[in-house]
């Protein structure tokens, strides 16, 4: 994570935690050449977030949220960290929780890939696995129920409402994007393509990039309801939970992407040496749809995690 993002790491952090936090961020901004095929002159860039210590973009907000909680002493009485996650944030929580020596309990939908579940368990996290048919929001509600039932045992991080989530992207991820584009001789992007899990990436990066370019176009990926795309919330059905920290006023366009389209793009990205998960494929698929309009010249998105996290799902099999 960038130094500005953490504004100095507390000296009392254990060595392992301090090293991990210091390794987060400053990920490469890679150019994806597919955009020029759909609209000449359009350039598409993506942050390669699999190079964070736990392998995903979620290291950024989780580190900020946990370090701030550690500073506040919320774990001093032995309470566990509690939150819901589709997997990537859960892995980051489990990794940093192990390094900090705190207990971690994650409520996770049962359709999370086996690799995600096994890695969280490897760090010693306790998992509460919910019925995948119940959907993304059921796990979120279950975490709230546990927190209310046992407040002495749990500190509920609540990444869907914790402002340190979006702030990590405002002062870290977005600043890196602007700096890396400037180093290429390019201005601030005119388009941002993101998704909504907690809303942190979209809100933090969107707010900062809007300051650099008030006319920026922000497009949001909307997955199908089931089987969905790990890490992304579907919207549109009655009762769907809208994350408390999501700044929906930033959104200019919503683009539906199916799991098949996301996987197909992941396979195409692999031919460039970019081995990424389905949410990354969905983002690039949507970015190319935006590029095809011909209205924009510099598009930025995110490659959220590594494709190794999804081998057990069959998405890389020759017969799928």
Automatic annotation (TrEMBL):
Organism superkingdom: Bacteria
Gene3D superfamilies found in the cross-reference section: 3.40.50.1100
Record CDD domains: CBS_like
Residue ranges constituting the Tryptophan synthase beta chain-like PALP domain according to the UniProt record: 23-292
Listed Pfam families: PALP (PF00291)
Cofactor(s) named in the record: pyridoxal 5'-phosphate
UniProt keyword list: Membrane, Pyridoxal phosphate, Transmembrane, Transmembrane helix
Transmembrane segments: 91-112
InterPro entries assigned: Cys_Synth/Cystath_Beta-Synth (IPR050214), TrpB-like_PALP (IPR001926), TrpB-like_PALP_sf (IPR036052)
Name of the featured protein: PLP-dependent cysteine synthase family protein
Taxonomic placement: Bacteria, Pseudomonadati, Pseudomonadota, Betaproteobacteria, Neisseriales
